[in-house]
Amino acid sequence: MHLNLSNFKAQHFKNIAPCELRFCNGFNCFTGKNGSGKTNLLDAIYYLSIGKSNFSVKDQQLIQNGKAFFRLAAQYNKAKNTDLLAVEMAYHQNKTKKVTCNGEAIKRIKQHLGTIPVLLVAPDDIELIKGYSNYRRRTIDKVLCQSNPTYLNQLALYQQVLQHRNHHLKNCKRQPDYTLLESYNYKLAPAANAIYEIRKTFFANIEAHYKATYNNISGNKEAASFQYTSDLLQNDYATLLKNCLKDDVFAQRTTTGVHKDDVLFLINNAPAKNFGSQGQQKNVLIAFKLACARYMQQQQQKSPILLLDDIFDKLDGLRVEALLNLLQQEDYGQIFITDTEMDRMQFVLNGVSSKKKFFTVDDGEVREF
To answer: In the chain, how many H helices and how many E strands?
Structure first.
């Protein structure tokens, strides 16, 4: 099943001018110069699903300069356009955020996660291949938290207890309260084991689709793979915590656990971050994100809304054509794309038979083309 964003309203969100837009259930394309507001528009759509910006900024910073609030509202069609889902999110300066779904107030945003699955591919996501492990874990968490309530709850518990444990280790002057540490370990171990099992299953689930998607986009020019690494591959977490206690006290932090998990992307068995070209790295990013989209679809029985920001950068014409054919043939659902050039956008989508809508964005003003 596809969940399609049909009607969208924005008021005082970043630099976006007040607007009311109608989208199609195929490709919705936004073009404009860099800094015009295209990415902010995608971020607004993302916000309606996740309840926060993709760019790790506070709600206060999302309010347009000189304004006191922002408001986003949208209607989503499901079940062949016969059933509507209405979502509204607003934030006023120094006030609590207001979130409603079909007129019913949502007190905690975690209750909303997964209702409207979304997946964003942005230029900064190249850090998934080239950057630090925390970026890769955060990317995976965004997928799994939308797809699995158990994962969301266990991750929140793990992070909370880990923070308390690390605070004690840092401030105990290497003379810890071992009874207190044992109580932390008692809570951490089952949460870590649950997170590890879900992550391990996730990577096993997406592996075949990831490889096939990469091959499809690249024209079978090289072999792509990945390796998931975790301290828990060798032992359960309770045992690891016991074995690493002296190291933890000396380092004044928890040195082992799922907060150290990582994934290494390979091209022809060599690290993509070191030996992959820019085009190959972009292929890895897209293939991984599309594999995540397919996983989310399988888990929730509804396709995530795909937000593709500046997707054509670093891709040659053949790879662009292969990507668009893939998006259409495998029916990934509703897609939003940004680019700097309208002519290029129209040209590359010329062969796509799915519904299409084009918009221009100029200094925050959004107009249908």
So the answer is: 11, 15
